[in-house]
Amino acid sequence: MPDNYELPHFGGKLMSTQVSALLMKELKNGIFSKSEKLPSEVELAERLGVSRTVIRDALSDIEREGFIERVRGIGTVICRDIVNLTNRLDLKLEYNELIVNSGYTPYTDNIKLRIEYADEENAELLNVDEGSKLIVCEKRVLAGNIPCIYSIDYLSYDLFSGIEYTDIDWSKPIFDLLDKYCGLIVVTDIAKITATNADEFIREKLQVQPKQALILLDEVGYCKLSRPVMRSLEFYTDFFDFTMLRKKF
Amino acid sequence: MPDNYELPHFGGKLMSTQVSALLMKELKNGIFSKSEKLPSEVELAERLGVSRTVIRDALSDIEREGFIERVRGIGTVICRDIVNLTNRLDLKLEYNELIVNSGYTPYTDNIKLRIEYADEENAELLNVDEGSKLIVCEKRVLAGNIPCIYSIDYLSYDLFSGIEYTDIDWSKPIFDLLDKYCGLIVVTDIAKITATNADEFIREKLQVQPKQALILLDEVGYCKLSRPVMRSLEFYTDFFDFTMLRKKF
DNA sequence: AAGTGGTCTAGACCACTTC
DNA sequence: AAGTGGTCTAGACCACTTG
């Protein structure tokens, strides 16, 4: 790292956030892209003109996502295999991002919109009364012209009070719609993963080969304060490589 | 929390680790098992006689695993839905634990042990030379009398130098064997998840119903310093509920 | 205004690795 | 002995929520 390395500017954001973003950038493509270790915490602190605490907070963020490993007496070691991973199922929540990352353009078609009334399972998962109104949106997602996901979203009708739900463009990612129309940001997601052969309708829509099985993600999305706001069933073909980092802490 | 609450003892372990273990215990079954929030950081620090930093470190660990959420101006909110989850695929690496958690006794049978020579894929994944000797161990794992996993482990023969590998009891979890015979502790694991119908042999061993699909975890286990030491292919029936917490940070 | 968690500083000591 | 990351202290100020 050059002696004169400095933080670009202080645009109101947290220093530790800036530092971790900077370090990640340099890890992936920049001055540390060929390194085995990062400079010491004390050195980084001096170079960037912040306290060691700021550096440590930044490194903790990066470590939590698995990109570095900190070893006492040795230093901050870069985990190349992990930095180079794409499509981390444990980090990304949104499939359009995955499609773009894979070099394709995401499309949505076969949209089916309807009202249902919450059964016991959905009522409990979404924390609404049994029998209350739900908006159900089914759709097919394609990467370029390759069908890769069939998704069924369940949302409480009450979230969209004051908006005519049929006016909404449901081809957009559900996370974006919840944000735009309800001011709700999904930050956490409990996903149950199973393997399935699905029914004929879905297999046909996804053009699944006879012997091929599908991944089913049964997800509940939560906003801040553990508030469940959506459930979605997503059937994935083998188009994606779902990778997951599991760590003992 | 009672006024006289104190840390049980200081057995040489880190204070923040003790504090987080204590808090997790109280969250699950203890005095916070019915609470919506934890006491404030300052209060916890005073009650437990440590600095706020120690408390914050402990809370960070618990937050990273999704069990609490910290909200400025409000406090430390408990995520009940997450505390109550079992079988978190993103936290547990070892299936015997999952089986025990589900209330069954794990058994292993149909063990097949052999030597193979590394193909290109395994050579790259395990960071060994192509053609080098690998120990391959296939086995079936049961929960009680229910077959639920078929696993194929690949390990470099060189790891077991000085030990006759045929003398080892391969029914034990591979993590335990690596620890006991090689002094290697697997701390990280990159897992690729796919759905499969598997071949007839495996389907028969797992007594899979005709329409049922299987989850295949293709894992590479790493020790400290990004050292790959094992690859394993694990076929799971739907015996397990694989749950995963995904978080935006 | 009071209380909460979030960030940052400055400094200390410890455990571990390397030379 | 020197350098690394790990932990802990004490104190400060900030941003946000609640009464």
From TrEMBL, chains A, B:
PROSITE patterns for this protein: HTH_GNTR
InterPro entries assigned to the protein according to its UniProt record, in alphabetical order: Bact_HTH_transcr_reg, Chorismate_lyase_/UTRA_dom_sf, Tscrpt_reg_HTH_GntR, UTRA, WH-like_DNA-bd_sf, WH_DNA-bd_sf
Gene3D superfamilies referenced in this protein's UniProt entry, alphabetically: Chorismate lyase-like, Winged helix-like DNA-binding domain superfamily/Winged helix DNA-binding domain
GO molecular function: DNA binding; DNA-binding transcription factor activity
GO biological process: negative regulation of DNA-templated transcription
Keyword terms of this UniProt record: DNA-binding, Transcription, Transcription regulation
Keyword Transcription carried by entry: yes
Key word Transcription present: yes
Residue ranges of every copy of the HTH gntR-type domain listed in the record: 13-81
SMART domains named among the record's database cross-references: HTH_GNTR, UTRA
Record's protein name: GntR family transcriptional regulator
